[in-house]
Amino acid sequence: MKNRLLFLALFFIAFQINAANKAKHVVLIGCDGFGGYAFEKANIPNIKKLAQNGSMTLEMRTVLPSSSAVNWASILMGAGPTFHGYTEWGSKTPEIPSVTTSKYGKFPSIFTILREQKPNSKTALVYSWEGIEYLVEKDIINIVVPTKSNENLSADTAASIIIREKPDFIFIHFDEPDHVGHSIGHDTPEYYSTLEIVDQRVGKIIDSVNEAGIADETVIILLADHGGIDKGHGGKTLQEVQVPFIISGAGIKKNHKITDTAIVYDTAATIAKILGMKQPQAWRGIPLQDVFLK
Prior knowledge:
Elements: H1 2-20, E1 25-31, H2 45-52, E2 54-61, H3 68-77, H4 81-84, H5 110-117, E3 123-127, E4 143-146, H6 151-165, E5 169-174, H7 178-183, H8 189-211, E6 218-223, H9 238-241, E7 242-249, E8 256-257, H10 266-274
Parallel strand pairs: 1-5, 1-6, 2-8, 3-4, 3-5
Antiparallel strand pairs: 2-7, 6-7
Organism: Dysgonomonas alginatilytica
GO molecular function: hydrolase activity
Protein name: Type I phosphodiesterase/nucleotide pyrophosphatase
Protein backbone atom coordinates (compact mmCIF):
# COMPACT_ATOMS: atom_id res chain seq x y z
CA MET A 1 0.00 0.00 0.00
CA LYS A 2 2.81 2.39 0.91
CA ASN A 3 4.61 1.60 -2.34
CA ARG A 4 1.45 2.28 -4.30
CA LEU A 5 0.93 5.63 -2.59
CA LEU A 6 4.56 6.54 -3.21
CA PHE A 7 4.19 5.62 -6.88
CA LEU A 8 1.05 7.74 -7.22
CA ALA A 9 2.74 10.69 -5.49
CA LEU A 10 5.76 10.48 -7.78
CA PHE A 11 3.51 10.13 -10.81
CA PHE A 12 1.55 13.24 -9.79
CA ILE A 13 4.74 15.26 -9.27
CA ALA A 14 6.12 14.11 -12.62
CA PHE A 15 2.82 15.01 -14.29
CA GLN A 16 2.88 18.49 -12.74
CA ILE A 17 6.49 19.09 -13.82
CA ASN A 18 5.72 17.88 -17.34
CA ALA A 19 2.65 20.12 -17.55
CA ALA A 20 4.64 23.13 -16.34
CA ASN A 21 7.34 22.53 -18.94
CA LYS A 22 4.99 21.75 -21.83
CA ALA A 23 5.47 25.11 -23.55
CA LYS A 24 8.73 25.26 -25.47
CA HIS A 25 7.94 28.18 -27.76
CA VAL A 26 6.52 31.66 -27.25
CA VAL A 27 5.20 33.84 -30.08
CA LEU A 28 4.76 37.48 -29.05
CA ILE A 29 2.66 39.57 -31.44
CA GLY A 30 2.62 43.33 -30.94
CA CYS A 31 -0.08 45.48 -32.59
CA ASP A 32 0.93 49.12 -32.27
CA GLY A 33 -1.90 51.41 -31.19
CA PHE A 34 -4.53 48.70 -30.58
CA GLY A 35 -6.64 50.14 -27.78
CA GLY A 36 -8.53 47.85 -25.43
CA TYR A 37 -11.74 49.77 -26.20
CA ALA A 38 -11.57 48.59 -29.83
CA PHE A 39 -11.68 44.84 -29.24
CA GLU A 40 -15.44 44.37 -28.94
CA LYS A 41 -16.24 46.78 -31.78
CA ALA A 42 -13.83 45.26 -34.29
CA ASN A 43 -14.45 42.46 -36.79
CA ILE A 44 -11.36 40.46 -35.87
CA PRO A 45 -12.29 36.75 -35.92
CA ASN A 46 -8.75 35.39 -35.65
CA ILE A 47 -7.87 37.54 -32.66
CA LYS A 48 -11.21 36.84 -30.97
CA LYS A 49 -10.78 33.10 -31.51
CA LEU A 50 -7.29 33.36 -29.98
CA ALA A 51 -8.88 35.02 -26.94
CA GLN A 52 -11.65 32.41 -26.73
CA ASN A 53 -9.04 29.65 -26.75
CA GLY A 54 -7.01 31.39 -24.06
CA SER A 55 -7.09 34.12 -21.43
CA MET A 56 -7.65 37.83 -21.95
CA THR A 57 -7.92 41.23 -20.36
CA LEU A 58 -8.80 44.45 -22.14
CA GLU A 59 -7.52 46.49 -19.23
CA MET A 60 -3.79 45.93 -19.14
CA ARG A 61 -2.23 49.30 -18.33
CA THR A 62 0.60 50.95 -20.22
CA VAL A 63 3.39 52.89 -18.57
CA LEU A 64 3.44 56.65 -19.02
CA PRO A 65 3.75 58.27 -21.42
CA SER A 66 1.36 56.05 -23.38
CA SER A 67 3.65 56.01 -26.40
CA SER A 68 5.60 53.50 -28.43
CA ALA A 69 9.29 53.18 -27.57
CA VAL A 70 8.81 53.61 -23.83
CA ASN A 71 6.15 50.89 -23.77
CA TRP A 72 7.79 48.42 -26.15
CA ALA A 73 10.92 48.74 -24.02
CA SER A 74 8.85 48.05 -20.90
CA ILE A 75 7.16 45.05 -22.52
CA LEU A 76 10.48 43.48 -23.51
CA MET A 77 12.50 44.59 -20.47
CA GLY A 78 10.19 43.69 -17.60
CA ALA A 79 10.41 47.10 -15.92
CA GLY A 80 9.29 50.71 -16.27
CA PRO A 81 10.99 53.74 -17.78
CA THR A 82 12.68 54.98 -14.62
CA PHE A 83 14.53 51.65 -14.56
CA HIS A 84 15.33 50.97 -18.24
CA GLY A 85 15.60 54.66 -19.09
CA TYR A 86 13.63 54.85 -22.37
CA THR A 87 11.09 57.58 -21.65
CA GLU A 88 9.74 58.96 -24.94
CA TRP A 89 7.78 57.97 -28.06
CA GLY A 90 10.87 57.60 -30.20
CA SER A 91 13.63 56.93 -27.66
CA LYS A 92 16.75 55.52 -29.34
CA THR A 93 18.92 55.57 -26.24
CA PRO A 94 17.95 55.85 -22.57
CA GLU A 95 17.25 59.45 -21.56
CA ILE A 96 17.82 58.31 -17.97
CA PRO A 97 20.82 56.02 -17.43
CA SER A 98 19.56 52.44 -17.03
CA VAL A 99 19.80 51.25 -13.43
CA THR A 100 21.75 48.25 -14.70
CA THR A 101 22.99 46.87 -17.99
CA SER A 102 23.87 43.38 -19.13
CA LYS A 103 27.18 42.46 -20.72
CA TYR A 104 25.50 43.24 -24.03
CA GLY A 105 25.21 46.93 -23.12
CA LYS A 106 21.49 47.41 -22.52
CA PHE A 107 19.02 46.95 -19.70
CA PRO A 108 18.30 43.19 -19.66
CA SER A 109 15.41 42.13 -21.87
CA ILE A 110 13.69 38.83 -22.53
CA PHE A 111 16.22 38.34 -25.34
CA THR A 112 19.06 38.90 -22.84
CA ILE A 113 17.97 36.28 -20.36
CA LEU A 114 17.26 33.76 -23.09
CA ARG A 115 20.81 34.15 -24.39
CA GLU A 116 22.30 34.00 -20.88
CA GLN A 117 20.19 31.23 -19.39
CA LYS A 118 19.51 29.20 -22.53
CA PRO A 119 22.50 29.92 -24.78
CA ASN A 120 21.39 27.40 -27.39
CA SER A 121 17.92 28.90 -27.73
CA LYS A 122 16.79 30.16 -31.12
CA THR A 123 15.30 33.66 -31.16
CA ALA A 124 13.82 35.89 -33.86
CA LEU A 125 12.62 39.45 -34.33
CA VAL A 126 10.49 40.80 -37.19
CA TYR A 127 9.51 44.45 -36.99
CA SER A 128 7.95 47.05 -39.25
CA TRP A 129 8.67 50.16 -37.16
CA GLU A 130 12.37 50.99 -37.13
CA GLY A 131 12.16 52.28 -33.55
CA ILE A 132 12.12 48.69 -32.29
CA GLU A 133 15.75 48.10 -33.26
CA TYR A 134 17.01 50.58 -30.65
CA LEU A 135 15.37 48.64 -27.82
CA VAL A 136 16.99 45.25 -28.40
CA GLU A 137 20.45 43.72 -28.58
CA LYS A 138 20.32 42.70 -32.24
CA ASP A 139 23.69 40.93 -32.06
CA ILE A 140 22.35 38.26 -29.70
CA ILE A 141 19.17 37.52 -31.68
CA ASN A 142 19.52 34.73 -34.23
CA ILE A 143 17.20 36.16 -36.87
CA VAL A 144 16.47 39.89 -37.21
CA VAL A 145 14.28 41.14 -40.06
CA PRO A 146 13.26 44.81 -40.40
CA THR A 147 10.45 45.15 -42.94
CA LYS A 148 10.33 48.95 -43.21
CA SER A 149 6.56 49.33 -42.70
CA ASN A 150 5.68 46.50 -45.07
CA GLU A 151 3.18 44.77 -42.81
CA ASN A 152 2.36 41.97 -45.24
CA LEU A 153 6.06 41.20 -45.49
CA SER A 154 6.20 41.13 -41.68
CA ALA A 155 3.46 38.51 -41.53
CA ASP A 156 4.86 36.42 -44.38
CA THR A 157 8.40 36.55 -43.02
CA ALA A 158 7.39 35.70 -39.47
CA ALA A 159 5.24 32.80 -40.67
CA SER A 160 8.13 31.46 -42.74
CA ILE A 161 10.53 31.71 -39.78
CA ILE A 162 8.11 29.87 -37.50
CA ILE A 163 7.57 27.06 -39.99
CA ARG A 164 11.24 26.71 -40.95
CA GLU A 165 13.09 27.50 -37.71
CA LYS A 166 10.58 26.82 -34.90
CA PRO A 167 12.18 29.50 -32.67
CA ASP A 168 11.99 29.30 -28.91
CA PHE A 169 10.92 32.94 -28.89
CA ILE A 170 9.87 35.31 -31.66
CA PHE A 171 8.63 38.88 -31.37
CA ILE A 172 6.61 40.19 -34.31
CA HIS A 173 5.84 43.91 -34.35
CA PHE A 174 3.06 45.32 -36.53
CA ASP A 175 2.87 49.12 -36.88
CA GLU A 176 -0.88 49.07 -37.47
CA PRO A 177 -3.46 50.14 -36.50
CA ASP A 178 -1.44 53.04 -35.04
CA HIS A 179 -0.43 54.50 -38.40
CA VAL A 180 -4.02 54.92 -39.54
CA GLY A 181 -4.87 56.20 -36.06
CA HIS A 182 -2.44 59.08 -36.56
CA SER A 183 -3.38 59.83 -40.15
CA ILE A 184 -7.17 59.45 -39.97
CA GLY A 185 -8.02 58.90 -36.31
CA HIS A 186 -8.34 56.24 -33.65
CA ASP A 187 -11.81 54.74 -33.12
CA THR A 188 -12.87 55.63 -36.68
CA PRO A 189 -14.31 53.39 -39.44
CA GLU A 190 -10.92 53.44 -41.14
CA TYR A 191 -9.24 52.35 -37.90
CA TYR A 192 -11.55 49.34 -37.63
CA SER A 193 -11.05 48.48 -41.30
CA THR A 194 -7.32 48.44 -40.67
CA LEU A 195 -7.82 46.21 -37.64
CA GLU A 196 -9.54 43.70 -39.93
CA ILE A 197 -6.39 43.60 -42.06
CA VAL A 198 -4.24 43.25 -38.94
CA ASP A 199 -6.44 40.32 -37.94
CA GLN A 200 -5.74 38.58 -41.26
CA ARG A 201 -2.01 38.94 -40.64
CA VAL A 202 -2.37 37.58 -37.13
CA GLY A 203 -4.30 34.65 -38.60
CA LYS A 204 -1.33 33.90 -40.84
CA ILE A 205 0.95 33.77 -37.77
CA ILE A 206 -1.44 31.42 -35.95
CA ASP A 207 -1.68 29.18 -39.03
CA SER A 208 2.11 28.99 -39.24
CA VAL A 209 2.32 27.65 -35.68
CA ASN A 210 -0.07 24.88 -36.63
CA GLU A 211 1.76 24.18 -39.89
CA ALA A 212 5.07 23.97 -38.01
CA GLY A 213 3.57 21.21 -35.87
CA ILE A 214 4.34 22.98 -32.60
CA ALA A 215 0.88 24.22 -31.58
CA ASP A 216 0.70 21.83 -28.61
CA GLU A 217 3.90 23.25 -27.12
CA THR A 218 3.52 26.94 -28.02
CA VAL A 219 2.08 29.95 -26.24
CA ILE A 220 0.92 32.88 -28.37
CA ILE A 221 0.65 36.31 -26.75
CA LEU A 222 -0.93 39.33 -28.44
CA LEU A 223 -0.84 42.81 -26.94
CA ALA A 224 -0.37 46.49 -27.71
CA ASP A 225 1.87 49.30 -26.52
CA HIS A 226 -0.92 51.89 -26.20
CA GLY A 227 -4.34 52.89 -27.49
CA GLY A 228 -5.22 56.29 -28.88
CA ILE A 229 -7.65 59.17 -28.92
CA ASP A 230 -8.47 61.41 -31.90
CA LYS A 231 -5.21 61.36 -33.91
CA GLY A 232 -2.77 60.92 -31.06
CA HIS A 233 -1.68 59.17 -27.90
CA GLY A 234 0.71 59.71 -25.03
CA GLY A 235 -1.84 61.10 -22.62
CA LYS A 236 -3.61 59.82 -19.52
CA THR A 237 -7.05 58.78 -20.77
CA LEU A 238 -8.18 55.17 -20.41
CA GLN A 239 -8.60 55.05 -24.19
CA GLU A 240 -4.83 55.56 -24.41
CA VAL A 241 -3.56 53.56 -21.41
CA GLN A 242 -5.72 50.42 -21.51
CA VAL A 243 -4.67 47.76 -24.01
CA PRO A 244 -5.67 44.17 -24.77
CA PHE A 245 -3.53 41.30 -23.53
CA ILE A 246 -4.37 37.88 -24.96
CA ILE A 247 -2.49 34.69 -24.14
CA SER A 248 -3.32 31.26 -25.54
CA GLY A 249 -1.70 27.86 -25.84
CA ALA A 250 0.05 25.18 -23.84
CA GLY A 251 -0.75 25.35 -20.12
CA ILE A 252 -3.04 28.40 -20.46
CA LYS A 253 -6.66 28.60 -19.31
CA LYS A 254 -9.27 28.72 -22.07
CA ASN A 255 -12.14 31.19 -22.43
CA HIS A 256 -10.89 32.92 -19.30
CA LYS A 257 -11.16 36.57 -18.29
CA ILE A 258 -8.02 37.69 -16.47
CA THR A 259 -8.97 39.26 -13.15
CA ASP A 260 -5.45 40.10 -11.96
CA THR A 261 -4.36 43.70 -12.44
CA ALA A 262 -1.77 43.86 -15.21
CA ILE A 263 0.77 46.32 -16.58
CA VAL A 264 2.71 45.91 -19.80
CA TYR A 265 6.00 44.98 -18.11
CA ASP A 266 4.32 41.90 -16.63
CA THR A 267 4.65 40.46 -20.15
CA ALA A 268 8.37 39.70 -19.95
CA ALA A 269 7.94 38.15 -16.50
CA THR A 270 5.13 35.93 -17.79
CA ILE A 271 7.25 34.79 -20.76
CA ALA A 272 10.17 34.05 -18.44
CA LYS A 273 7.90 31.83 -16.32
CA ILE A 274 6.58 30.01 -19.38
CA LEU A 275 10.07 29.23 -20.63
CA GLY A 276 11.35 28.27 -17.19
CA MET A 277 13.76 31.15 -16.69
CA LYS A 278 14.70 33.24 -13.69
CA GLN A 279 13.97 36.92 -14.11
CA PRO A 280 16.66 39.52 -13.34
CA GLN A 281 16.56 41.31 -9.99
CA ALA A 282 16.03 44.63 -11.78
CA TRP A 283 12.78 43.51 -13.39
CA ARG A 284 9.61 44.69 -11.71
CA GLY A 285 7.11 42.65 -13.73
CA ILE A 286 5.08 39.88 -12.08
CA PRO A 287 4.01 36.74 -13.98
CA LEU A 288 0.25 36.76 -14.56
CA GLN A 289 -0.49 33.68 -12.45
CA ASP A 290 -4.20 33.92 -13.21
CA VAL A 291 -3.68 32.69 -16.78
CA PHE A 292 -2.05 29.36 -15.95
CA LEU A 293 -3.81 26.04 -15.53
CA LYS A 294 -3.37 24.78 -11.99
